[in-house]
Task: inverse folding
């Protein structure tokens, strides 16, 4: 009889331990260390493919950080939604909700709350807070966040390992990108093309990636040169990298685009960064 009670007690304790473990388990994306450095952000005026908001190329210094190796997947996003009753999965696109596809149809604001959830999940300090109805970012905290435009472009260009290619990692789009000519009109499984010099996948194509910065066409004319974080205010937020539907010229590392922060569609996705201890 005593043995039976002990077995029952062990079973109950095991169940409780498993439940607590699932509740408090970490859920960390694979991160790549990006050593800081100085690079030419933007495009030179003689570049016939460049848009005017890329002018004029300027030297920018970026501190070291970590960037997720892959775009946030449907599986990762569904885990976030399951643990947040006020969140819902985005409407299913015609290509379905495949776990290993990048999440799409999420807003900039959705991405912000995902970052805060991911920080708490890993016992880190959330970066974002609301003050006077506005979302603020504390760049000194150690949690997950969206990249700044400067961080994004620096990583896309290969950081200190850059081979100075037009796209992220190579000049041949077929090798490194799911885009308008080869995607079959849908996003594709993350990490199935070649990575760039830093070992980061899909920075060209697959889905546009939200950045922290407000968009300003003329920001390069007056922005900071050390760890720029974008204008203090604006109307739209920056997105980078192009998508499964984008064609060549708009897939270049320096290309900029912008969208209202509450907009969403099948082209927009998420990649996260965080400060590094190194």
Result:
């Amino acid at each position: 009889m005593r043995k039976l009670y002990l077995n029952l007690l062990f079973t109950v304790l095991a169940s409780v331990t498993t439940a607590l473990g699932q509740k408090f388990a970490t859920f960390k994306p694979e991160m790549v260390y990006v050593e800081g450095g100085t690079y030419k952000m933007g495009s030179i005026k003689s570049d016939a493919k460049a848009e005017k908001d890329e002018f004029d190329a300027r030297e920018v210094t970026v501190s070291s950080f970590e960037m997720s190796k892959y775009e946030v997947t449907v599986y990762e996003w569904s885990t976030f939604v399951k643990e947040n009753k006020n969140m819902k999965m985005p409407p299913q696109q015609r290509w379905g909700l495949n776990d290993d596809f990048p999440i799409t149809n999420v807003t900039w604001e959705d991405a912000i709350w995902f970052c805060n959830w991911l920080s708490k999940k890993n016992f880190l300090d959330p970066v974002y807070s609301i003050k006077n109805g506005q979302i603020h970012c504390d760049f000194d905290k150690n949690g997950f966040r969206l990249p700044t435009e400067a961080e994004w472009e620096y990583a896309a260009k290969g950081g200190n390992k850059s081979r100075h290619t037009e796209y992220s990692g190579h000049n041949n789009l077929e090798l490194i990108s799911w885009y308008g000519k080869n995607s079959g009109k849908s996003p594709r499984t993350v990490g199935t093309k070649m990575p760039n010099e830093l070992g980061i996948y899909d920075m060209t194509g697959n889905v546009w990636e939200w950045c922290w910065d407000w968009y300003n066409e003329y920001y390069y004319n007056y922005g900071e040169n050390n760890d720029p974080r974008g204008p203090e205010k604006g109307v739209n937020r920056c997105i980078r990298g192009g998508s499964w539907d984008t064609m060549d010229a708009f897939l270049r590392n320096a290309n900029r685009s912008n969208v209202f922060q509450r907009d969403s569609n099948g082209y927009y996705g998420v990649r996260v960064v965080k400060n590094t201890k190194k």
